[in-house]
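pasting for ref
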Amino acid sequence: MIAEKAKLTNFTIQAIFGEIMTKINAVPQNIEELTDQKKYLAEIPIEIGRQQKAIERCMRVYDICDEFQFEFSNSE
């Protein structure tokens, strides 16, 4: 159950960073999109700061799994 919690949290964090990468890599089609992308880029450090707490919680869950010598697969 703890391992499932770790996997779910990890998947959620990866999805959020995947969305960030998609927005960063999007090619603006006009000046409005370019302006929006510039604003978004300025907000990325704030979003990463928010995710830092989730990452730390996830790592604590992985530490618990490690204490119980739970083995994850290579993909996990």
